[in-house]
Amino acid sequence: MNPKRRKLLGTSIAASAVVLALAAAPMVGFGADHLDAPGLTPPSSRADADINDIYAFQGHNESNTVLVMTTHPAAGAIAPLEYATDVRYVLQIDRDGNARKDVTYRVLFKEPRDSGSQRYVIVRAANGNAKKVARGWTGSHTDIRGGGKAFVGLRSDPFFFDLAAFQGSVLGEDNNRAFCDGDETDFFADFNVNAIVLELPDRKVGGEVGIWGETWQRGSNDRIDRMGRPAINTVFNSGADKNAFNRTGPYWDRRDFGDNVVNVLKTFSALDSEGAYSNAEANGLADVLLPDVLTYDTSTDAAGPLNGRALADDVIDAELNIVTGGFPFAGRDGTGAITGDCVGPHGDYMNRFPYLGEPHS
Q1: Structure pTM?
Q2: Alpha helices in the chain (DSSP H)
Q3: According to the model, what pLDDT value does residue 36 have?
Q4: Each residue of 117-158: pLDDT tens digit?
Q5: CA distance 120 to 305
Q6: CA gap 257, 292 in Å, rounded
Q7: Which of 118, 253, 256, 332 has the fewest Cβ atoms within 10 angstroms?
Q8: How many CB atoms lie within 10 A of CB 119?
């Protein structure tokens, strides 16, 4: 093992300790989508195909859109550092609002060199045509033919959340923690992930689009994981439905998983002093949250989770508020039982490509 990789493994939190810390948190689990299979396990037991988060936001050049898919939760501890050579890592773009793909960016990997870097190729597919648009090595930038650039490799995890406060406030654990108690701790502050970062001209993405990520077993039609908006599968599905959700596309989400969303919304909104959402309210909100596609108007600044998602968008605050009764329906005050965790964005985001912070050592 090369020295850099040994250092990363040696300084990461041990996988067993991470899993133990998360085992009691079924609602939010490991993060936005980390470890979203039953029992806090990676989908299909593939940590190297586990999607953590999807982001979409304007680039430093406002005529560009940045698409990010992070994978490999707690890379170097729970997940390996290498990308899998038998997995297709995919970003999907829906341009007409039907929750079906119109443009696809697939990233495929070769075996790592002794140094740990891997050769990859990016394939763009649209209108029935697929072509290779970039080749590169993990850890470095490469240009995309037709406009744009790519970075693929290890970065710091941009996700932020006070897990211990959630365990104390919501799950009732005796850990002397509560949200916004003055002892806020970002559980994810020192984690690394693998990231696929594409900065593309808006014309290559579209105007009002839907974006989601997928991982697939190469050589088969077996989808391993998928994600659009943060925490949809993690929060609203349980048991076998978690696997079923990952294996199907977003087109059928409302039909197949809408009841799950409605039931969870009614249960957790009952924590609010105004009482639980009505059936009509919960169903209306389910229509907003599903299908699980990150909608984004590329001509605007991102404002996650309903219009893209920038790295610093506090989507968990927004979702805690919504799920616990804070959606501003007529007659409700728009403030849920839990309005946030008082943990803010990381300080290592970059204002230029590739935007995610340098990996922790």
Answers
A1: 0.90
A2: 3-11, 15-22, 163-169, 202-205, 232-236, 240-247, 253-269, 279-289, 315-321
A3: 59
A4: 999 999 999 999 999 999 999 999 999 999 999 999 999 999
A5: 30
A6: 10
A7: 256
A8: 14
Which of 142, 92, 98 lies closest to 117 in space, CA to CA?
142
Question: In this structure, are residues 30 and 73 in contact, taking their beta carbons and an 8 Å threshold?
Answer: yes
Here the tokens at position 211 are 């974006």
Nearest-angstrom CA–CA distance, 194 and 177: 31
- Ranking 150-154, 231-235, 339-343 by mean pLDDT, the lowest is 231-235
Neighbours of 273 (CB within 10 A): 9
Those residues with Cβ within 8 angstroms of residue 190's Cβ, 6 or more apart along the chain or in another chain: 13, 360
Which tokens is 280 given?
């009509």
